[in-house]
Amino acid sequence: MPRNHEHPLSEAMDRRLFLKRTAVAGAALGLMGRGLAQQQPTADQVVQGKNPKLVVLSSRPVVMESTLELLGSERITSKANLFVRNNIDLPGLNTTEPNVQPGWEVEITGLVDKPFKITVDELSKLPQTEVTTVLQCSGNGRSFFNPRPSGNPWTYGGVGQVTWRGVLLKTLLEAKGVKLDPKARFITMNASTQGGAQPYEKSYPISVMEHNSAMLALGMNGEPLPAVHGGPVRLVAAGTFGTANVKWITKVEFTEKESSGNEQVPRYRVPVLPGWNTPILPTQPGSRYNYTLDNSRSNWGANINSFILSPLPGSSVRGRLVEIRGVAWNDGLAPIESIEVSVDSGTTWRKAVIEGDHGKFGWYRWVAPRLLSPGEYEAMVRATDALGRTQPLNGNIWWNERGYEWNGVMRVKFTVT
């Protein structure tokens, strides 16, 4: 019988069946929606106290990056806006609140004449030093390599400027009357394995203790060290990438050789020519590399870099006088002497005005006023320091399969109206 001649009761039953099925489908979609939301949580859902505008790259272990807008809004990057790159998960520490553990112990051992252990409470009573540094993941900018290497797809947000407070390693050794063996060449650090966390062991040259203000940090930005950023104690070495600033430190060992652990090799290394320590060996984009202690170096020392923080990419600005602003930084071994800006895609360059710095390990803030007619522009920036180190126009020349140490010239397109 045609549908328009069906019994009214049948039509009512069909309507009820349709509504029931619609409700079930809606519930299923709701569950799927909640599932998607769980797969893509906001930063504040992953780490209590974080700005929800941070971009979550991984929920476990926690990896999240800041944005150019947030970085340009503060002179010192707040704990809410600072990126997170954790290699291990410690239970209960995904918060920006302090991790208060006065009895937490750090063991000082290895090539020292008197090994010892010291608690956070004891450290807090020793002379404290403050240092402002640029903290940056060595994979920051990885997404700009072509082809894109493996690993978290960092853009520009794996960086920030913070002020640390703590006890310098050399101050600690002096206070304890401890002497180093002349054979000691590396500082080897171990993070906590509480809660079944995987071991995390890193080494870098002992010279950073003398020149880079290596410290056992207890505070950040005038507050106790946040749990997610390594509280209660973190080893901070100014002028180095984040991988060398080990969180939740439990042991500092002075060693003759660098660690052979997984976090030292093959991870966090770049290719070099045999016998060379500084340059990256150019490798064919897309190729593989067998990383060893002999044919590569650990990427612990930060390279020179600079960002444009205003105007933001894709933005429109009014008026003919446009102030292009940003920051530059390096490893602190030499002052940054020149910051150049181009507004015609690199055809011509003019020096920016360096407005000031936050110490040799911090950001150099700069401004480049330009008279610009209405139209579309591409601004570029590059920094050069007293050692002649600068940024390549094409960052891809240093392509490496793990995507470390990107410092290619930044390009920002904007419109003047």
UniProtKB/TrEMBL annotation:
Residues 300-415 form the Moybdenum cofactor oxidoreductase dimerisation domain. GO terms for biological process: sulfur compound metabolic process. Keywords: Metal-binding, Molybdenum, Oxidoreductase. Pfam families: Mo-co_dimer, Oxidored_molyb. The keyword Iron does not apply. It comes from the Bacteria. CDD domains: SO_family_Moco_dimer. It is an enzyme of class 1 (oxidoreductase). Gene3D superfamilies: 2.60.40.650, Oxidoreductase, molybdopterin-binding domain. Its cofactor is Mo-molybdopterin. GO terms for molecular function: heme binding; molybdenum ion binding; molybdopterin cofactor binding; sulfite oxidase activity. Residues 102-261 form the Oxidoreductase molybdopterin-binding domain. InterPro entries: Ig_E-set (IPR014756), MoCF_OxRdtse_dimer (IPR005066), Mopterin_OxRdtase_euk (IPR008335), OxRdtase_Mopterin-bd_dom (IPR000572), OxRdtase_Mopterin-bd_sf (IPR036374), TAT_signal (IPR006311), TAT_signal_bac_arc (IPR019546). Its EC number is 1.8.-.-. This is Sulfoxide reductase catalytic subunit YedY. It comes from Meiothermus luteus. The lineage of its organism: Bacteria, Thermotogati, Deinococcota, Deinococci, Thermales. The gene is yedY_1.
